[in-house]
Design brief:
Structural class of chain A: alpha/beta
Strand order of the largest sheet of chain A: 15-14-13-12-6-11-10-7-16
Protein name (chains A, B, C, D): Gfo/Idh/MocA family oxidoreductase
Distance between the termini of chain A: 33 Å
CATH architecture of the largest domain in chain A: 2-Layer Sandwich
GO molecular function, one term (chains A, B, C, D): nucleotide binding
CATH class of the largest domain in chain A: Alpha Beta
Mean pLDDT of chain A: 95
CATH superfamily of the largest domain in chain A: Dihydrodipicolinate Reductase, domain 2
Oligomer: homotetramer
Pfam family, one (chains A, B, C, D): GFO_IDH_MocA_C3
CATH topology of the largest domain in chain A: Dihydrodipicolinate Reductase, domain 2
Number of domains of chain A: 2
Largest interface: B-D, 43 and 43 residues
Radius of gyration of chain A: 21 Å
InterPro entries (chains A, B, C, D): Gfo/Idh/MocA-like_OxRdtase_N (IPR000683), Gfo/Idh/MocA_oxidrdct_glycsds (IPR050463), GFO_IDH_MocA-like_dom (IPR055170), NAD(P)-bd_dom_sf (IPR036291)
Largest sheet of chain A: 9 strands, mixed
Shape of chain A: globular
Keywords (chains A, B, C, D): Oxidoreductase
Helix content of chain A: 25-40%
Amino acid sequence: MIGYAFMGAAHSVGWRSVHRAFDVPLAPEMRLLVGRDPAAVGTAAERLGWQETATDWREVLTRPDIDLVDICTPGDSHAEIAIAALAAGKHVLCEKPLANTVDEARAMVAAADAAPDRVAMVGFNYRRLPAMALARRMIAAGEVGTVRHVRAVYLQDWIVDPEFPLVWRLRKDKAGSGALGDIGAHIVDLTQYLLGETIESVTALTETFVRDRPLPGDAGSAGLASSSGSGRGEVTVDDAALFLARFAGGAVGTFEATRFATGRKNALRIEINGSDGSLAFDVEALNELWFYDGRRPASGEGFRRILVTEPDHPYLDGWWPPGHGLGYEHSFVHEIRDLVEAVAAGTPASPGFADGLQVQQVLEAVGTSAATAAWQKVVGA
Amino acid sequence: MIGYAFMGAAHSVGWRSVHRAFDVPLAPEMRLLVGRDPAAVGTAAERLGWQETATDWREVLTRPDIDLVDICTPGDSHAEIAIAALAAGKHVLCEKPLANTVDEARAMVAAADAAPDRVAMVGFNYRRLPAMALARRMIAAGEVGTVRHVRAVYLQDWIVDPEFPLVWRLRKDKAGSGALGDIGAHIVDLTQYLLGETIESVTALTETFVRDRPLPGDAGSAGLASSSGSGRGEVTVDDAALFLARFAGGAVGTFEATRFATGRKNALRIEINGSDGSLAFDVEALNELWFYDGRRPASGEGFRRILVTEPDHPYLDGWWPPGHGLGYEHSFVHEIRDLVEAVAAGTPASPGFADGLQVQQVLEAVGTSAATAAWQKVVGA
Amino acid sequence: MIGYAFMGAAHSVGWRSVHRAFDVPLAPEMRLLVGRDPAAVGTAAERLGWQETATDWREVLTRPDIDLVDICTPGDSHAEIAIAALAAGKHVLCEKPLANTVDEARAMVAAADAAPDRVAMVGFNYRRLPAMALARRMIAAGEVGTVRHVRAVYLQDWIVDPEFPLVWRLRKDKAGSGALGDIGAHIVDLTQYLLGETIESVTALTETFVRDRPLPGDAGSAGLASSSGSGRGEVTVDDAALFLARFAGGAVGTFEATRFATGRKNALRIEINGSDGSLAFDVEALNELWFYDGRRPASGEGFRRILVTEPDHPYLDGWWPPGHGLGYEHSFVHEIRDLVEAVAAGTPASPGFADGLQVQQVLEAVGTSAATAAWQKVVGA
Amino acid sequence: MIGYAFMGAAHSVGWRSVHRAFDVPLAPEMRLLVGRDPAAVGTAAERLGWQETATDWREVLTRPDIDLVDICTPGDSHAEIAIAALAAGKHVLCEKPLANTVDEARAMVAAADAAPDRVAMVGFNYRRLPAMALARRMIAAGEVGTVRHVRAVYLQDWIVDPEFPLVWRLRKDKAGSGALGDIGAHIVDLTQYLLGETIESVTALTETFVRDRPLPGDAGSAGLASSSGSGRGEVTVDDAALFLARFAGGAVGTFEATRFATGRKNALRIEINGSDGSLAFDVEALNELWFYDGRRPASGEGFRRILVTEPDHPYLDGWWPPGHGLGYEHSFVHEIRDLVEAVAAGTPASPGFADGLQVQQVLEAVGTSAATAAWQKVVGA
């Protein structure tokens, strides 16, 4: 695994736990953790349960005992590592967004296509929340009929304070974009996954409410400082991205990704209205899926709160009795389960790199629409 | 109508509005409002829409143009007025609790029995909330199966402050009891109404957390002051009453009525669990009824929030389109509708005085159980 | 009052009740109800409490005993009636939307300007829900700081069934537009009212999911039938309207008005995120306002559910103790209260016709943006 | 660890994860898993991550490489194992309830007292949910003032179906009691923990709604069958237990534990009302704690939903950013953390065996009260 910050820790839970919860055909071995700082990566490896460490990610390419590379670095290094790993015959799990640009993502898809017997998966973990997988199953089974409306927001508030520092996620060169690529990517992927349809066109706006911020303490001597001359630097990404969308099947949608929704900590909320029913969901209450069955008489009907903890709900066979809820990190255990099964079966993983590219194309259309103040067709749609 | 405080104002809404919302066979005329203070009753009559006023309630007995007497006074005068009114050939609506003691209630039932062609109704208005009437209909139709559990609380917080004054509702001589008779009576009546079954036995405790309070400003020279000698008087009723109950049909219940539930303003909450389903309700969200259908597979089921605003819901034919909620006062419009229909049809009203007596007997059993620390059978059960 | 359907009934509640709940300087007299069908208007007048009836609305112009005209007709007749009434020296309350076109609305504002001593009010009743008035007060007091995000939806589902008939609200000639003018107008007005700021520009889409519908039974012989030849007619308005907006003060917003949100009966929902706090509201739970105070430590903070039933909440001095909720219709009582007070004081009412025009201009910009697939500046902004 | 069913799996998560999430002074080694069926225990050990297996629990007593014994068996074997383990110089974690009878529990406390340098902890895992630990911290800090009311239910529905088989949890000889000891024990422990006060007296009822059930399939040849002669056996424990309680500090409480609350899967709900504030919690939404601050003006106050996912919330330093919720199993990781820290520090663990005994004494008082229909003082209180 390359990288050991937030995502590295979350993926490690998946690698450690998958065979404890599920009957998987292969039990993972956590061989090598890579990071640039030797002391820090050593500490992380011990904490997270990795056997060895390295400071150069290229070491994974030549190790015959490593079958799979898990990329948890910032988006600007995804393409280089993933392409090299695939070329070296490794399976790859790449954290989302697949890349910082469509061009990089395209190259990654080409690399995956050139290694058809290798699994190349992109880590949209929220698909693996049981409530989302159940929603997908219900929509595919026709329980909401023809989808008319999609309403998706991803609301956070961690940078509302204008004195919050200029971390890498607020710099375009590292992160590619701001709320759009970080959390907007999730709601683009999730809604398309749920509907089984792609977004065809968008009209968008983006906004940066706080345009400069203090440089992080540990960056005092870095080149960054020169951009402000006063210990502050320019925020080069969006704080918020809003867009309207038309889906291929005729549904229309509103989307909003923001880090300025005071009080909303991790409110990924999706509501879908169809001709026969509706579904609603919020990651802040991730064990619940709300369903309205429009085929029944309205006098006895209402949005019902399905506790997604029954044994026949997706992924729940590995866990606890009804009502004993799961948490955020379980999405990674499920992601790894699906990945391991794909590796063992020699089948493509879903979402694959092509799905990651398509999400990137939607995000690019959003960015272009916001920059040009015009509707934008999604390339490839 | 006798009395014009909180309940008088609420009943007046019912009298003014019933024929505006519903096709009732008789349109009420609001003839006479009675109160002891001539100036105050005059102001109230003009505000509430009553044609004339009087200061002696006995005037209603001899007025041939008055067909019905609505009693909104404190509980200690209910019996005297109701019995006289029935004897004078008037229909009677008496605010709950029917009386302060079982003996008084018994005399009132006797008076009602002696006037079989007069309607004698007790004002348990919460039965007339559409959600409660719908719950009754669903339970009677078997939608929850055999009831196993009843969970009923009525939580308020208006006397949490120990400096809140010693108003009449905190004096046993005026109010009969405290939370028990004032709000506990509602949950006793409602749960018995919903189940169509009576409570057979109880074990209870009552508590008075704040045992003396400042005398109200306008009571300075009254006899009350003597009980404290310092501008404070003794609280002679319960602040809270809690009990367990067994119903005739085998269900068991927990009940709690309190004025010390900080932050709960008017939380009358009832949950009923049956062999085939469950219902839940809260007056603080009075347009909603929650239903769990246990006859369907658990994987697709959850408590559903029925917005009780559909045209085929009880009482909703008189009101607005779906989703346009009603308020607390509508319960009184519905109460008056049912009363007027009973008067026109010459049929008994429900709940009648016998129902009021039965509730009183349950409350008495609660009081006795609390005093004796022993299970108590409800007299008559 | 002209018109006696849904809005006519709702306004009548206001006229009947305002002086029963509040100390208003003038008690309204409900003189004349106007409708084209003499039998129907007679029945309605008796039901709703109006003294006389007429079949020609022009009768109100010449009646010296009529001081105020309340217009509850479809939007295509608002301008003609309002302009005539103002010219005849009457005060006017006009149901929203002010008119079906900006041109009509402009003429109405001119008429109001020409009668400066007459009150000309437009009926955006949701401003008068206590929770909305409280939200306005809190935002004005700075409790959310600088507003960053507005998230407003108005979701209904009454025409999801494709066999629901082609009623007047689905015809452009009568209604002007569909969801946009009927319910979208409310969220445009409410959000601008809450922020005290106008919308400056929009990008929009509209959609008509069901393009033809059965003609209503009673329209069999009307010209409408010719448009389908088969008992069906074309839907000439939008089923749904979605738009992004930029406010004058820098906030960005998403808006959605639809009649195709299966299971959402009357879900007017607004969330506002500011630099110091957030507010959230849903008409389906109209006695609640949710507030997050971002100025306090996050570890003890969360969205709090304020039950807007305290005596010091807006309009609550006229009603019941805490926790005894109000309903939809109370918004009309409050609207009439504010109107009567403006008439008595000789001050302009708010929202006045100019406010109605401005909302109309926003709606027009939305329509134009949807038609041209381009961002549109709001005229006058 | 002895036992590998539901609790065994849950404890294993704790043992595997504690040093991955937290800086603990000792990293556990998962040495030996004990179970009677050699094949099954082998499979379980591999799944759950234990190094070796044994079929006789006594093997743990003589293994010098085993420092701590974790007892996850049914309640009837707790005393024997725990006493032997303590005598053999092992630390002990014993799943709740501590024992099936007060006598056994007393013997266990004596054994713990005789081994003062050994940690003897009882596994009330719900104390370790961050929301519950935060509630405890807030109550101890005076944020709710003097506690007046406790309202605690633990509602499940897994045996509502009368054809659900007669598993060991429904047999008094194995389980000691039914809902009372299994889930009632949790709410007794939790409420006492939260208040820092004990229950002094109770009045109770218990009920068994379904009195016989099919014998489990694999018990065909067992002695059980003889009790029915027809493939059914008698249910010898309570389906539901309800009681009222008085706490040492003057608070009063209602308690209910049931397996017949149709639709409630794992609804452990607690509400506490104090003179200055209130708290409410539900395990079905375990990342939320609701708080009402009664010291602030009611007009701006309401129950606030604290998402207990902030870094300064209890146990949250080991996990994810705000809003990324935890699950049920995390309570066991936290339990093991506290246990490991106690072992390392040589300090007693909390809750210790004496706490387990005290809970058992409350449960016994409940059982006695239900049997005698009289208030019962808790022994030792």
